[in-house]
Amino acid sequence: MTALVAYTKAELRKVHGYLTRLLQPAGGKPLNAEQVVDVGDLRDKTTVMIATHAGKIERGAKVLEWRIPKEIAPTMNEWGFWQMWRKGRARKDLEDRLRPMIAASKGADLCGAQKMRWVRVTRFTLQPKNVDDAAIDAIGGKMPVDTLVRKGVLAGDTATLLKREAVVAKTSRGNTHVLVEVFEIASEEVPDGGPQDGIVQQIARKRGRMTRAITGEE
């Protein structure tokens, strides 16, 4: 899925400024009459866009970053085949991992405040082109986001309380995982370098006695 490209509010103001300079006398080659009309129209349109985007929310400062092994961040396709006991074990594992991170991340806990936040979920996978749906739930963000809500980092998962952003990116073999980043909401975007890959220790579950017997390990 190709991400929608759009200007931020700050970029729109820059475009407006540059267009205005083109209409003023300058040292370079002057614009012809047709170009002057075109630039004037573009500036007028940009003026309208700036006013329209004035109330648009932007991604603010990051408050928490959480890297999760793929074993406890199932895609929606995987989730549908999980037994209840496995879902319960994954929920507990996620909560155990998140708890110390909240304590170490200043301001992560909303303490009950009904405050909107921005969450960016990135699935790092060996073959990102094979992922057809880049929705958060589809790429493995459902259980982590639900955990963030239960533990008070997110006030809820509705559109009025949560702005969602989903990304799929490439990683090395054996390092498939999910990165969850939580940001404040701001009136002006806080620049960030985008989701960065990292090494994740995958979970090695000990096989049960029956499984070992079936596979010949006993």
Secondary-structure topology with pairs:
Blueprint (H helix, E strand, L loop, with lengths): L8 H15 L9 H20 L5 E12 L6 H4 L4 H21 L12 E9 L11 H14 L11 E9 L6 E10 L22 H6 L4
Parallel strand pairs: 2-3
Antiparallel strand pairs: 1-4, 2-4
Helix pairs in contact: 1-2, 4-5
Concise overview:
The protein is built from 6 helices and 4 strands, in the order ααβααβαββα.
Instruction: List low-confidence stretches.
Output: 210-218
Task: Give the strand line-up of the largest sheet.
Answer: 1-4-2-3
- CATH architecture of the largest domain, by name, is 2-Layer Sandwich
Q: Work out the count of structural domains.
A: 2
Strand % is 15-25%
Question: What is the H-and-E element order?
Answer: HHEHHEHEEH
Helical content (DSSP H or I, runs of 4+): 25-40%
Give me the count of strands.
4
Major sheet description: 4 strands, mixed
Give the overall shape, derived from the CA principal axes.
Answer: elongated
